[in-house]
Amino acid sequence: MLEAAKQSGANAFVYTSTCCVVADDMGMPYSNIDEHWPTSPRFLIYGESKAAAEALVLQHTSDMMPTCALRPSVLCGPGDHQLIPAIHACIARKETPFVIGTGSNLWDITYVTNVADAHVLAAENLKSSRTAAGEAFFIQNNEPITFRDFCLAVWAHYGHIPPFELHIPERLAYLVGLVSEALAWVTGRTTTISRGSVRDACAVRYANGESARRVLGYEARVGIEDGIRMSCEDLAHRLGIELPPPSKQKPE
Predict the structure, then answer these.
(1) Can you say whether the dihedral through the CA atoms of 95, 80, 208, 49 is positive or negative?
(2) Which of the following CATH numbers is that of domain 1-239: 2.40.128.110, 2.40.50.140, 3.40.120.10, 3.40.50.720?
(3) Is 15 a catalytic site residue?
(4) Which residue among 46, 158, 206, 218 is the active-site one?
(5) 191-222 tens-digit pLDDT
(6) C-alpha dist (Å) from residue 231 to 130, 162, 183, 223
(7) For the segment 149-183, what is each residue's pLDDT rounded down to a tens digit?
(8) Four-point Cα dihedral 216, 212, 227, 22, nearest 10
(9) Which of 4, 140, 141, 181 would bridge with 73, disulfide CB 3.0–4.6 Å?
(10) CB of 54 closer than 8 Å to CB of 35
């Protein structure tokens, strides 16, 4: 892609990387990470491939074609077939009362149009001041939310409130995930819980957005509450259902 961009006369190159180039060690917490953090020494294949591509892009920055990389967090928004659908599916499976770990772990979620805004700002920077050239930037809503609160917000848009809460220790959930994976391998069926999903549910992963704000002028235009609502509306439309009217009751 770099060679094709050069040959076509492109005067800026913005690479869509991922926060996973740093936050990819599933056993390590990542609190308020910034661009000074090194890339993870322990990669899953997704993070490994993204880190290799990001390094290549940043190494090839030049006066003729300045480059930079953006590291978005987990995304939600129209067309999402992974995050919101998986959390919504917990309602039908009656899994919403179960809290894996403490439920207080903070993580980043980003509405997709905010990431699009960041790409435009990065391209404009590379074509003007070029202060972003050769740099990588974490991109997120800058509103860390606990994983449990995020799930509760999604379920609430579908009119569901868990009838009770039952905390499951992370180690026990991890063991259940291991057994579920083994059963899925034997039976050929999919599993709703795995070691990876347990680690994701308990992970602390949020980044500092100061560099993107200072260099690119990036601010999330769509807040987390509106982003969750519009994501749920989009899934409801695809499922052919109507969301109940929002509750007017204020939280205590």
Answers:
(1) positive
(2) 3.40.50.720
(3) no
(4) 46
(5) 778 888 888 889 999 999 999 999 999 999 99
(6) 34, 20, 33, 12
(7) 999 999 999 999 999 999 999 999 999 999 999 99
(8) 140
(9) 140
(10) no
